[in-house]
Amino acid sequence: MTSLLRLPVAVLVLAYQSAFLALGQIWANKLRSLLTTVGIIIGVASVTAVIAALSGLKKSVLTEFQTFGTNKIFILPWWEGRGPRRDMRDDRVRFRPEMFDGMLDHCPSVATFTRLCDYNATISRGRKAEQMVEITGIEPTWHQIESREVILGRPFSWIDNTQARPVCIINDKVQDKLALSRDPVGDWIMIGDRRFTVVGVIKARAESSMFGSGRSSSEVFVPFTTARTSPRMGMICIAASRSPAVTDEAKAELTFYMRRARGLKVGEENTFQVESVEQFVQQFNSVATAITMVAGGIVGISLLVGGVGIMNIMLVSVSERTREIGLRKAVGARPSAILLQFLIEATMLCLMGGLVGLLCGQGLTTLMASFKEAKLEQAFIPAWAVALSFGFSAAVGLLFGMFPAVKAARLDPIEALRHE
Known about the structure:
Layout: H1 2-28, H2 30-36, H3 38-68, E1 72-77, H4 103-106, E2 110-125, E3 128-138, H5 142-146, E4 150-153, H6 158-162, E5 167-171, H7 172-177, E6 188-191, E7 194-202, E8 220-223, H8 224-227, E9 236-241, H9 247-262, E10 272-276, H10 277-299, H11 301-320, H12 322-330, H13 335-370, H14 383-409, H15 413-418
Parallel strand pairs: 3-8, 5-7
Antiparallel strand pairs: 1-9, 1-10, 2-3, 2-6, 2-9, 4-7, 5-8, 6-7
């Protein structure tokens, strides 16, 4: 038992002594060691900064997806045949409201849904007006799906929808632009040439770099049946699964239900699309991971360049210390001990370069996060990137330090002692 433990202990003692000698050599040649590790420093700093930027961008985008709602499912009219895409008002593609009447009874994984349509119109009150405002027709369940808070007044009721009442909900941007009172509930605005009573004020949506580009900040909502003035008017449906975990089941149920509602036979192409936000999240995760790996690999080439510098300086070190190597061999040092010493010295150089590079990478990450225009406030260096940096640095030291170490271990002690 004692003999079994003796070998690992001897190896640990040898490694400790070699590390101590390596640090002494590095400290004795401080400037040379620093210049040698410049390639490693630049490589690690570049890799960690790129990974931090991509991680921050990924976190920011996923936060927006979560705000948007990861359990949402969009049911859209769509024709993907051999000919050109059909208009959504085409009878073969266009949705009709009654198609969705029994959907919840046949789709147990779906919590609720809302039919939705929209059009652009001019809104006004007195001399104040705003053009090309998106007017969205919604059902009362829209509030549950979107989780948008009504800060004044009330949300729509089913009576508003079934009786197609001329009522509307506005956001605070409309309230400001039309110079309405601080409590506009009960007041009126003109949508086109029709007068609507304001029944509520909704909290403005959060500004989003992904979903908000090109959209007006003014929002006006009216009951779905009020907005849908013509049977030929296009519409879509937004459903919500009971949880993100059952979104795939909900999509399958909705697809089966819609095919039956459309009267599609086996083998016929769908005239609709069922898309979930969770699906886009998974696709984005895959793309982001691939980009991170490719970018990290490209930038990581500089680490290999740094490894060549390590090999070069270790060869110089072997030449300078030839007599020392010969003396150690003459007093009984084994080739494995010489090999281990030079390998540990090369690895220590790379690890120290990796540490400095990691600190530089953190500085670059902090600098990136300080620029508001870059939208990288959430940039951070993940723990796996830190481990990868040190692991790759150690691997470079072992790989490129192997040749000088083997050369030192194979030196003939007599020839080494004669070396000037």
